[in-house]
Amino acid sequence: MIIRPHYMNTLKTYRNVPLVKILAGIRRCGKSTILDMLRDDLLKSGIAADHIISMRYTSEDFDDGMTDKAMYQGIKEQMTNDGRYYLLLDEVQEIDGWEKAVNSLLENANTDIYVTGSNSKLMSSEISTYLTGRYISIPVYTLSFAEYLEFKKSDSRSTKELLNEYLRLGGFPIVALGCFDERSAYQIVEGIYNSVITNDITKRHNIMNFDLFNRVVKYIVENVGKTFSANAIAKFLKSEGRSLSVEAVYNYLNWLEKAFVIYRCQRYDLQGKSVLKTQEKFYLADASLKYCIMGFNPKSIAAMLENIVYFELRRRGYEVYIGKNETKEIDFVAVQRDERIYVQVCRRLPEESDQEVANLLEIKDHYPKYVVTLDELAAGNINGVKIVHLADFLLSDTY
Q1: 181-290: which CATH architecture?
Q2: Burial 219-257 (b: 16+ CB within 10 A, else e)
Q3: Whole-model pTM?
Q4: pLDDT tens for each residue of 160-204
Q5: Can you give the residue ranges of every domain in the chain?
C-alpha cells in the first residue's frame, strides 16, 4: 500500500477532534485505501484493534436496503467496553439516513468518526439538518503528479517520460499501479465512468433519455477549459435537432458535479472584486475521463493542461477562479486566506508567451504570477512573471 501523505496529514490534524471527517470524491479515487492507511496508522499509534470499527456499505451488500437504525445498532453492538472507538465507515451514501446514525454515534458514544462517499447522497441537505457545524469535508482527488511518481518509484523512466504518461493515462490509482497501454487504461477508466453514470446519476435521478444525457456529457467533455452556459448547451442541442430545456441542462450539470465527475470554476472580476455568476468553466475529475470517451488526441493536451493545473491548485487548498480583468482573461486566480497567485497555462513558448505574460502584467499588484508550460526550454522571469515548466510547477513545494 502506497501512502498518500497529504491525506494522512490532514486526517491526523483532525484526529480526536469532535467532528465527522467526510472524505468525498469520485469513485475509485482512493478513498477506501485512505481509510486502510488510517487504520494502519491508528494501530501504530497504539489504538487497540478492537477499538477500530471498519464498515463498508456497498450497494451489493445491502440490496434490500439498510436503515439508519440498523446501521446504528450494527456499530453500537461492536462497542463492547469503555474507551474511545474509531469508526471508519466506507461508502455511507448507500444507507438512507446515514447522517442520523452518524450524528447519534457522535452524540451518544465516545467516538472519532471518518466516513467516505462518492455521490450526491453524501452532499444532501440532510447533512445540514443533522450535522450542522459538526463535520469537516475533505475532498479526495485522483493522484497528483507527485503521488503518481511515488506509485512509479520502481520505474526506471525519466520524470519527463512519466509526465507524458501521466498526461495521457491520468491519475486513477488503479491505472497507476499497473503497467497498462492506452487502450487498457481507458477501458478501466470507462468502467469507472459507467459505474458513476449508472449508479450515481442515471438510477438515482431516473434519467429516461440516456442518449440525450450522454450528448450533454460529451459536450462538456469536448469543452473542458472553455467558458459556456447551460443556455449554450441547449442551443447547441437544438442545432442538432434535439430538444432539452435549460432547466434540464442545469440539472444534468448539477448531478455530474455532485457525483464528482466535473468541478465548477467560477469567474472572478479583478476590478469589481466579485464572483460572477455567468460563463463558468468546468473541469473533469481526471483527464483520462475525456480520453476514455473521446479517444486520445495530442491536440487536446492543451485544454487538459489547464485541467491538471486546476486540480493541483485545489489539492493545495486554494479556492480557484477564472480571472476577468476588464476584457482580458487570466486562466486561474488561486486564493488562500490573504494570499493569492495568478496562473496562465500554455502548451508552447515563445509564440504564446507574449499574450500570456501581457495579460498578467496588466494586473497591478505584487502577488506571484506564473506562466506554466510544457515547453522544454522555458524557464525564467519576464518582468516579474515566472515562466515554469509544468513538471516543476506540479512538483514545487511552494508557490
Answers
A1: Orthogonal Bundle (1.10)
A2: bbbebbbebeebebbbebbeeeeeebeeebbebbbebbe
A3: 0.94
A4: 999 999 999 999 999 999 999 999 999 999 999 999 998 789 988
A5: 5-139, 181-290
